[in-house]
Amino acid sequence: MSVWGIICLTLSLAYASLLLIYFVAWLFIPTQKKPFGLEPKQRFSILIPARNEAQSIIACLNAIIQQDYPTDCYEIIVIDDFSTDETAVLVQTFMAENKLFPIKLLQAELLKIKGKKACITAAVEQAQFDFICLTDADCTRGKEWLKAINALIQKKATQMIYGPVFFSANNLFEQSQTLEFMGLVGIGAAAIQLKNPNMCSAANLIFKKSAFYEIGGYAGNENIASGDDEFLLHKIFKLYPNEVFFMKDYRAIVETSPNGSMEELAQQRRRWVSKSTKYDNRYITAILVGAYFFNFSMFWNALAGFFMPGLWLIFGLQIGLKILAEGLLIFAVLRFFKQSKLILLLPWVEPFHILYVLIIGIWANIQTFTWKERKLQ
Prior knowledge:
It is globular and about 70 Å long. By secondary structure, it is of the alpha/beta class. The chain contains 13 helices and 12 strands. It starts with a helix and ends with a strand. It has helices spanning 3-28, 57-65, 87-97, 108-111, 116-126, 145-155, 172-193, 209-214, 230-239, 262-273, 282-304, 310-336, 346-363; strands spanning 44-50, 74-80, 103-107, 131-134, 139-141, 160-162, 165-167, 205-208, 244-246, 254-256, 369-371, 374-376. Helix 3 (87-97) links the parallel strand 2 (74-80) and strand 3 (103-107). Helix 1 (3-28) crosses helix 7, helix 7 (172-193) packs across helix 12 (310-336) and helix 11 crosses helix 13. The strands form 3 sheets. The chain has a 7-stranded mixed beta sheet with strand order 3-2-1-4-8-6-9, sandwiched between helices. A 3-stranded mixed beta sheet has the order 5-10-7. It folds into 2 domains: 3-25 and 278-371, no CATH class; 38-273, Spore Coat Polysaccharide Biosynthesis Protein SpsA, Chain A (Alpha-Beta Complex).
């Protein structure tokens, strides 16, 4: 076998082996069963950063006030980050129509702050309770979301919980995004189980206010556009490695919508990938770089195979290992979310995913990008 062939095989086996480790770790995460007779004990401050979320903020708030949980055991704090639409007005109207619920609106313009991290920090300062539930304004959830969180906290000493997040898709383009995101959820959950966390989502992230202050909040990461969730995860885990968990409980799922267009998808993924070189843990950066070169080698073999047909054999082996390893993990995660049938789309999605990784991986690190009508870098 040529040197190039050995390199390709090494990258493929390393990638597949890592995903198989994540697959096994996912299986070992205990599924939390619905407890009987467990009384609400914890109190929560639910923080919702919002920028131009007029289309979704009311559904988000409705899902929270419909929780099967005592209203004196939680509060809702919406932080409006210079919205140019009717987000703030809608929240104020909602508050007036639901006076029995503890809802507060903070406005970044009045506080003279800007950006998601600054908004979250300001809201944490205003929070009454020690357990912070961070979520996004375009998310909904079931009525037992807080009950599930309460149950885990009563069972284990907890500083941070990463809760399950699902993309509710309506068409093939959105379902393709769901498949990719399920892989990311599985990897993030498994990495926490392996005591080597890498990623999480601010759509469903619970942490203690006291821990936030112990780690200095976002100090050192303030100027990075993304990472309001993952930098917290890494910092809190470093201080409390045995008190950070993924919550594998169906009642705790938070649902959000995938991107509706290629432009929105590209901008979001560029925002996510832009922090890939900013991690203190170089192991994470190394994994991302390795995955990038694995996808590059597949692209090269598929292209160069027109001139050297032997490379198509290597490509076939590579993509076969990729589908097998990713399929095992994604199918296991989809089963938890009761969406197993989506796995049938995986062979169709894989070739596009290779191109997507190559393009976004470079693009995210060389140009500014736009998010919620705001240019970031």
